[in-house]
Amino acid sequence: MEYSTFGRHVAVDTWGGNIELLNSAELLQSHMVEAAEACGATVLSVQAKQFEPQGATVLVLLSESHISIHTYPEKGFAAIDCYTCGDTVDPQAAIDYLVNVLKPEKTYAKKLIRGIGEMQVEEPVMKQVELVK
Question: How large is the average pLDDT for residues 58-83?
Answer without folding.
Answer: 97
